[in-house]
Amino acid sequence: MDFSKIEFLLSVHSLKQLPPLELPEIAFAGRSNVGKSSLINTLTGRKKLVKVSARPGKTQGLNFFRVADYFFLVDLPGYGFAKVPKAMQDGWQSLISTYLEQRKTLRCVVVIMDIRHEPKSQDTQLIEWLKQNSIPCLPVYTKIDKVSGSIREKNARLLDAGHTLHAEERVLFSSKTGQGRDKLEAALTRFLLTP
């Protein structure tokens, strides 16, 4: 599937703004600053499709990108240490959880984690919540170019254990080198082709 024929559609800040249920959707979630924007840019082969920010909390709505007439990529606001007012964070949480629970065209949630950090409770809670709600998820460990091979394997095993995952259930990814892009694209294509 060609992920490069992509264009920004709209930024959703309330449920009534959601586009019609016409195409399958893949959502991208992760703590602030785990490399979500860079991953989407690498996946689509577009360097500046999603703005990469050094300031956590830059994404403040559900950003919908249309990939040809095939599907939507949905960039969710980062969670964690975003320096935004608590009321705004609470609003995001309500919008995101309702979207994830009720969106009939949602095929998968890509949960992005930085391989350099130990398992975080928020990631664990999200993965468990998705499983409990029968929402398919694909964990992706990013920034693998920033650690050596032996450390990468050790950290990946720690994240697997911390989130109760098996190695075949996740993807190792580098936005800098493109490593893992083909595996990620193949995994997402399987989710998109599953009714």
Question: Can you walk through the features of this model?
Answer:
The chain is an alpha/beta fold and 195 residues long. It has a single domain (6-193), classed as P-loop containing nucleotide triphosphate hydrolases (Rossmann fold), CATH 3.40.50. It is built from five helices and seven strands. The protein has helices at 36-44, 86-102, 121-132, 149-162, 181-193, and strands spanning 6-12, 25-30, 62-67, 71-75, 106-114, 137-142, 171-172. It has a seven-stranded mixed β-sheet, with helices on both faces. The chain starts with 5 loop residues before the first strand and ends with a helix. The mean pLDDT is 90.
Overall pLDDT: 90
Quote the distance from N terminus to C terminus: 16 Å
| Morphology call | globular
Strand order across the biggest sheet? 1-3-4-2-5-6-7
Keywords:
alpha/beta, Rossmann fold, 7-stranded mixed sheet, 7 strands, globular
Describe the structure concisely for a colleague.
With 195 residues, this protein is of the alpha/beta class. The chain is built from five helices and seven strands.
Q: What is the topological layout?
A:
Blueprint: E1 6-12, E2 25-30, H1 36-44, E3 62-67, E4 71-75, H2 86-102, E5 106-114, H3 121-132, E6 137-142, H4 149-162, E7 171-172, H5 181-193
Parallel strand pairs: 2-4, 2-5, 5-6, 6-7
Antiparallel strand pairs: 1-3, 3-4
